[in-house]
Automatic annotation (TrEMBL):
Lineage: Bacteria, Bacillati, Cyanobacteriota, Cyanophyceae, Acaryochloridales
Organism whose genome encodes this protein: Acaryochloris marina (strain MBIC 11017)
Entries under InterPro entries matching the protein: DUF1501
Highest taxon in the source lineage: Bacteria
PANTHER family (alphabetical): BLL7424 PROTEIN (PTHR43737), DUF1501 DOMAIN-CONTAINING PROTEIN (PTHR43737:SF1)
Protein name as catalogued: Twin-arginine translocation pathway signal
Length: 409
């Protein structure tokens, strides 16, 4: 177990802000505990709008296959098909690592879920989701910061953000620690210097296997460098890709399960704006989903017994269009799928009212309709999961009252 001095050393080495360290010196007000539990909450925001229809695949819907002749995930039992969940929905095969959690009923999904605001702007939608007030940016603090004010007394209420700056969801009057990311994934290489690249180009301009490997590798790197300035990267707001979760998730798990008593953690993962070359069971989206699933599994393993009292939420600002576009991708949509993992979760089930994908059933004729407000999915995780009194939900989500009860916990 990590003691306070060890944590301070770890925090200093990892870039925890001085402001965030403020809560380590505060003395919590103790009263009755929440049934003796020490619940934890991890929120992961997939910035850029992940394609929920290819994450949890509605393989019984003919409209899904009609609208996605190249991007649809095949039905379970077919080559590279979805992994059957419940006879109606299937999981993207790149997320096969999560199936043990599904089978142990520690993983659930809420489909046709999201923010009711109609915006298709990444930035507005992310702000609304982080503020917890769709369509209204007047709220000055984020809903996860407001959660800190309403956790039951009797234990410290510490929050951690994995990133260099406090995100909107954790902004507010309560102290938050920022645990900096590691080095940037894309750093200048000697090969990026024009004279060196020119020399290598001449050396490997032929048609040998080695030359083709060099040419393909260079092309891939150029594409990646170019994408740093595209809408996809802007939509990510500087968040790293999902491959970072395995390493950084271990750091979060250490703090949640150690003596630091951290209760809430937030992580942003970018790269999900798949307008171009999204792929189906293989390809770009699959390459994003695979490390995400592995990272979630790693967090569970690193939490150990703490996972029994931990809830993990994975959400994104909106979904993507039902129909694929002409560039082998999907555009900004509306409804999406929300993921919930944890030891207290009533998992092994896809929650939410499914609206269908026929054109007449779609939102504005193009998108998955939202039948469950994302706040309805989060509400029971706060009350039954974190011990927050129901009367405080209106303060965490101002002007909102739960509409659709979900038995997630």
């Amino acid at each position: 177990m990590m003691r306070r001095r060890q944590f301070l050393q770890y925090a200093a080495a990892s870039g925890v802000t001085a402001m965030g360290l403020g809560w380590l010196g505060k003395q919590p007000v103790y009263s009755q505990s929440f049934s003796g539990r020490q619940p934890k909450l991890i929120v992961i925001l997939l910035r850029g709008a992940v394609d929920g229809l290819n994450v949890v695949v509605p393989y019984r819907e003919s409209g899904y296959y009609d609208a996605r002749p190249t991007l649809a995930i095949a039905k379970p039992g077919e080559a590279r098909g979805a992994i059957d969940l419940d006879g109606q929905f299937g999981l993207h095969p790149a997320l096969a690592d999560l199936m043990p959690l599904w089978k142990s009923r520690q993983l659930a999904f809420v489909h046709a879920c999201g923010s009711p605001d109609p915006t298709r702007s990444h930035f507005d939608a992310q702000d609304y989701m982080e503020l917890g007030t769709p369509g209204n940016k007047k709220q000055g603090d984020g809903w996860l910061n407001r959660v800190l004010a309403h956790l039951p007394a009797g234990r410290p209420t510490q929050a951690l953000n994995l990133g260099n700056q406090t995100p909107l969801i954790l902004s507010g009057s309560k102290s938050v620690a920022n645990l900096a990311f590691g080095r940037q994934a894309i750093r200048p290489l000697p090969l990026d210097r024009p004279p060196i690249q020119s020399a290598f180009d001449r050396l490997y301009e032929g048609a040998t296997n080695l030359s083709r490997a060099y040419q393909e590798g260079l092309e891939a790197r150029e594409i990646l460098k170019a994408e740093l300035n595209t809408e996809m990267m802007k939509a990510s707001r500087g968040a790293p890709g999902p491959s970072s979760l395995k390493t950084n998730g271990r750091r979060i798990a250490q703090l949640l399960s150690g003596d630091a008593e951290t209760q809430i953690a937030f992580v942003s993962l970018g790269g999900w704006d798949t307008h171009i070359n999204q792929g189906s069971s293989q390809g770009r989206l699959a390459r994003l989903l695979k490390p995400l699933g592995q990272g979630l599994n790693q967090i569970k393993a690193d939490l150990g017994k703490t996972f029994d009292d931990t809830t993990i939420v994975v959400m994104s600002e909106f979904g993507r269009t039902v129909a694929e576009n002409g560039n082998g991708g999907t555009d900004h949509g509306h409804g999406n799928v929300l993921w919930v993992l944890g030891g207290q979760i009533q998992g092994g089930k896809v929650y939410g009212e499914w609206p269908g994908l026929a054109e007449s059933q779609r939102y504005q004729g193009r998108d998955l309709e939202i039948t469950t407000d994302f706040r309805d999915a989060i509400a029971p995780l706060l009350t039954k999961g974190m011990g927050i009194e129901s009367k405080h939900l209106n303060q965490i989500f101002p002007g909102y009252s739960p509409q659709t009860p979900l038995g997630l916990i």
